[in-house]
Structures are given as C-alpha cells and as structure tokens.
Amino acid sequence: MGEDVGHYGGSYKVTKGLATKYGDLRVLDTPIAENSFTGMGIGAAMTGLRPVVEGMNMGFLLLAFNQISNNCGMLHYTSGGQFKIPIVIRGPGGVGRQLGAEHSQRLESYFQSIPGIQMVACSTPYNAKGLMKAAIRKAEMVRPGEHVTILTYSRMRYHVMQAAKTLVNKGYDPEVIDIRSLKPFDLYTIGNSVKKTHRVLIVEECMRTGGIGASLTAAITENFHDYWMLQLYACLHRTYQPLCWDTGGMDCSSTCPDCDSS
Question: What enzyme category does the UniProt record give (predicted)?
C-alpha cells in the first residue's frame, strides 16, 4: 500500500503491473497521509498479514516516524510478545534526478536507532527482490581484493565500482563489499575482509554526523579492538555527504548532486 502504487505503478514504477496481477484488494492506493497508511499497515501486520508499505521518498517517512518507532518497533515488546509486526516499509532515498531537498535525503541513520526493527539497503533489482522476500542480513562480496576493504551500500556501490577500476589501473587491488544490512551489520564478512586487507574505507551518501558510516566505524573498532590496535596499516577513512549538506539540504541544481563527497 502507498501513494500511486496501484494501476499507476508507483512514482518510480516499482509496483508496475502488480495491481493488474493481484487486484485492488491486495495493492492499495492511499491518500497522501503517510502516518495514516503506515499505521494501517502496522495494524494489518498485527492481525497476521504481511503488508508492504511504500513511502514515495525517504523524507516522507518522517511523517510516519511515530508509527514506525513507537508502534512498529516497540509493540512486540510493550505487548509482552502478544503481537508480532511482520511488515516491510520501503522507499527510495538519496540524490536522484534533481528532486530537491525534501526528496533527496538519506535518513537511514534516523531509523537505525529505532529498537525492534531491521534495516537493509539494496543496490540492484536482484538484491531488492531477495531482501523483500526474506530477512537476508548477509553482506555481498562484490569484488575480492587484497589491498583495502571498501564498505558501501545502495547507490554508492556503482560509484565505488567505477573508482575500483581506476585503482586497479594504478596497481591497487581493492576489495568491495556491499554491506546491504544496515541493522544489524554483517560483522563476520566485514571482519574477515578487514583482517585480510588491513585497511578500511567506508563510502556512503549519508550525513557525516550520526550517519551509517559512524555506526559502522564504531562497530568495527569495538568488535575487532585487539586486531585493530595492533595490525591495521592505516587509519580508517570514510566519505560522506559534503559538509554543506549537514547544514542545509540537497539543491535542485544539476551540478550539486554530483559534488564529490569528502
């Protein structure tokens, strides 16, 4: 359920053809009221259904933050285990097609802090299918390498793979991992890679302060402290949104979305 997910097929055509295949009783167009239809989805999940709720853009899910946090995330706990909430809430985020500040936000770190939910980020249609169908929490080794571990997710995967080609041409052998699961992290895959390459670079589109990269940095240092202190060849480095995005929003300019993160 969500805005325009029915016969229109969604703003980004993710649900194209579903209304024709499954009918209007299973594919529901909703009013522009994220708090309301997210609550409807949570209520449906409480009855044993498995709803999928779409937020047209990640920024719009802020309007449903109370439902996601206090109901979706906590009801299983606050009800003493009487209710399970098997719901999927999905939506795009990040720089796209000059969509401006309210449509281009990366807010995954907001939702990462909510107890009781899991969070994943897909970078390919195949990933999206698998992550929607099952609770897959395993990172994907996109490119094996020896010299540095590059951790990334979502849209940044494609930029990283382009950069990896440049590094290879210069004689470096980067290992690229699409972490996919933002909560919890797949520390087994990540840790094995770090122990092999001894160097870590995190590439993300999230904000500098309180972003996914900050949490991932903390998780790596906390879980691999002894190894980290003794055997890492270089300081962990991460790239993120330009600093101007921390104090403002994404511009509609055609050049600003392509600014280098630093």
Answer: oxidoreductase
Q: How confident is the model at residue 261 (pLDDT cuts 50, 70, 90)?
A: very low
Strand 119-120 relative to strand 181-183, pairing: antiparallel
CA 206 to chain centre: 9
- How many beta carbons lie within 10 A of that of residue 145, not counting itself? 21
* Structural domain contains residue 55: yes
- Same domain membership, residue 78 and residue 147: no
Our measurement of the distance from residue 63's CA atom to the centroid of its chain's CA atoms, rounded to an integer in Å, reads: 18
CATH of the domain at 87: 3.40.50.970
Task: Show which residues are catalytic.
Answer: 34, 103
Range of the domain at 243: 140-247
Whole-angstrom distance, CA of residue 205 vs CA of residue 152: 9
On whether both 75 and 149 belong to a single domain, the answer is: no
Q: pTM for the whole thing? A: 0.66
